Amino acid sequence: MADVKTDSISSTEFGKLFFEFKPRFIALAYRYVRDRETAEDLVSDSFMTFWEMHETLPADINVPAYILTSVKNRCLNHLNAQIRHRRAEQDMHSTLTRRLQADVRSLSACDPDLLFSEEIRAILKQAVRKMPKMTRSVFLLSRIRNMTYSEIAAELGISVSHVNFEIRRALNLMRSELKDYLPAVLITLILSSQW
């Protein structure tokens, strides 16, 4: 087949050439691209390109060598494209990793007390203003002045159990106001600290 002139090759001769060399060329391409379907596509494309251009090629060209060179070049192009693709993926992965690490550092440094403290304080103050007068007085004496239940009872002239009732009432009102912001455990902690 090597002595076939490219400008006079018939479709029958081309078919014989195709069936004779295709399996060898696929095996060679497969060694490089490691994917059977890709190897077959590269070889078929090389044969098709030859057929489309055969009338414009020099008459004395070695046809199998020409097609094999085309297969080799297509394998190289495919491998280079894979390298570029992998590098792009690695760059993207590195960028994503750096962003995730920055997010982790940011979240680690994030102090929820600082982020929400002003908003929570405003909600707490509003909730205190909504409380009935006795509940508000008991709550403020307990949380602001740090008085014991006995001291509050003595100051307001009520029983310790009434102080206990008013504190529970105040805490329930606070929990209700803050339910969308913090879990109940944190609400209890906030309410038990000075604000």
Automatic annotation (TrEMBL):
Q: SUPFAM superfamilies, per this entry?
A: Sigma2 domain of RNA polymerase sigma factors (SSF88946), Sigma3 and sigma4 domains of RNA polymerase sigma factors (SSF88659)
Q: Where is the RNA polymerase sigma factor 70 region 4 type domain?
A: 123-172
Q: Which domain of life is it from?
A: Bacteria
Which InterPro entries does the UniProt entry name for this protein? Answer: RNA_pol_sigma-70-like, RNA_pol_sigma-70_dom, RNA_pol_sigma70_bacteroid, RNA_pol_sigma70_r2, RNA_pol_sigma70_r4_t2, RNA_pol_sigma_r2, RNA_pol_sigma_r3/r4-like, WH-like_DNA-bd_sf
GO molecular function annotations of the record: DNA binding; sigma factor activity
Q: Is Iron included in the keywords of this UniProt record?
A: no
Which keywords does UniProt give here?
Sigma factor, Transcription, Transcription regulation
Give residue ranges for domain RNA polymerase sigma-70 region.
Answer: 20-82
TM region(s), chain numbering: none
Picking any one GO biological process from the record gives:
DNA-templated transcription initiation
Q: Name one Pfam family in it.
A: Sigma70_r2
Q: Which PANTHER family match?
A: RNA POLYMERASE ECF-TYPE SIGMA FACTO, RNA POLYMERASE SIGMA-70 FACTOR ECF SUBFAMILY
Q: Which family does it belong to?
A: Belongs to the sigma-70 factor family. ECF subfamily.
Name the UniProt record assigns to this protein: RNA polymerase sigma factor, sigma-70 family/RNA polymerase sigma-70 factor, Bacteroides expansion family 1
Species assigned in the record: Alistipes shahii WAL 8301
Organism taxonomic ancestry: Bacteria, Pseudomonadati, Bacteroidota, Bacteroidia, Bacteroidales
